[in-house]
Amino acid sequence: MTSSDNSVPCVTAKLQPEAAGALFEIIDSDGFTPTSWHDVESGVCRVALFPDEPGGVGRAQAALLAAAALLGVAVAPEITAVAQTDWAESWKRFFHVAKISDRVVVRPSWEHYAAQPGECVITLDPGLSFGTGKHATTQACLCYLDRLAAQDAHRYVLDMGCGSGILAIGAKLLGFEDVRGFDNDPDCIRVSVENAAVNGVAIPFEVDDLSHTHGPADVVVANILAPVLIEFAAQVAGSLAAGAQARLVLSGILDTQYGAVCAAYEGQGLVEIDSLLIGEWRSGLFGCVRPV
Ligand SMILES: C[S@@+](CC[C@H](N)C(=O)[O-])C[C@H]1O[C@@H](n2cnc3c(N)ncnc32)[C@H](O)[C@@H]1O
């Protein structure tokens, strides 16, 4: 949507950087495109919501206030207009080549990167689906996938809640032979298929949800919010193959919620093998039996 002066309306608000990631996870972003940037010098993070439709400004403002209230943070939304040309290019300043794990590097398409021997470079541009590699929860999953692939890549990996497809694509580039993914959002499947093609890998992605078991897969990765992981613990754990080598990676969990998630999965017969804290997000690696 543009006005006659070629500007687009947007709703913006200042936020603490640590709240921005959580806000993006819970905001109901139907009808607008959320984005954020972090001024490292001032420490201030600003979120901006660009409505897709005329009249969407009020909805974006209400969604921002509702998500902030859920998080218990105060925001003061402002309505501004941004030149369309600036908007189209400005977000590129916030996405750069990022080394995520020993071998995984994420690169936006407009930046060149000369891969070092052994590195897997995921080419991924930010879009509407979660999973650019900037979020701690995605990073933790890629770190675990890197470690698991180094141990044994002859395994079937299932990405539950694939978003942009970044984890499945990373798994495939790391050498896992059989990789699949699903999401309950059809837009995520369309984006995942496109992203897989950009990266030259073929991965079956499908629209599906967590309400029933899938697999069984040797490696299951689920980066979804803690309450969802707890609600569907039986289905997620039930999608993991039996055996000492099977591994489940759970992410999307605030450190304060991690104990409850562990309890839910221990209740399904799994044991925690390792956990990784990045910022306020703790991710866990689980197995059917603890390795000796
Ligand atoms: C935090 S994003 C993770 C995206 C990506 N896997 C990553 O690690 O960056 C969670 C994804 O789970 C999906 N999701 C949430 N609830 C789901 C459900 N019940 N069934 C399937 N997918 C779900 C969302 O649509 C979203 O794409």
List keywords for this structure.
30% helix; 9 helices; single chain; Rossmann fold; alpha/beta; 4-stranded antiparallel β-sheet; 7-stranded mixed β-sheet; 2 domains; 292 residues; Alpha-Beta Plaits; 14 strands; binds S-adenosylmethionine
Note down, in words, how this protein is organized.
The protein has 292 residues and is an alpha/beta fold. It folds into two domains: 87 residues, Alpha-Beta Plaits; 157 residues, Vaccinia Virus protein VP39 (Rossmann fold), CATH 3.40.50.150. The chain is 30% helix and 27% strand. The chain has nine helices and 14 strands. The strands form three sheets. It has a seven-stranded mixed sheet with strand order 10-9-8-11-12-14-13, with helices on both faces. The protein has a four-stranded antiparallel sheet with strand order 2-3-1-4. A three-stranded mixed sheet has the order 5-6-7. Strand 13 and strand 14 form a beta hairpin. The mean pLDDT is 87. Bound molecules: S-adenosylmethionine (SAM). The site of S-adenosylmethionine has 21 residues, from helix 4 and helix 5.
Which helices and strands occur, and which strands form pairs?
Elements: E1 7-15, H1 17-26, E2 32-38, E3 45-51, H2 57-71, E4 78-83, H3 84-90, E5 98-99, E6 104-107, E7 120-123, H4 136-151, E8 156-160, H5 166-173, E9 178-183, H6 186-198, E10 205-207, E11 219-223, H7 226-231, H8 233-237, E12 247-251, H9 258-266, E13 271-278, E14 281-287
Parallel strand pairs: 6-7, 8-9, 8-11, 9-10, 11-12
Antiparallel strand pairs: 1-3, 1-4, 2-3, 5-6, 12-14, 13-14
Helix pairs in contact: 1-2, 4-5
The chain binds S-adenosylmethionine.
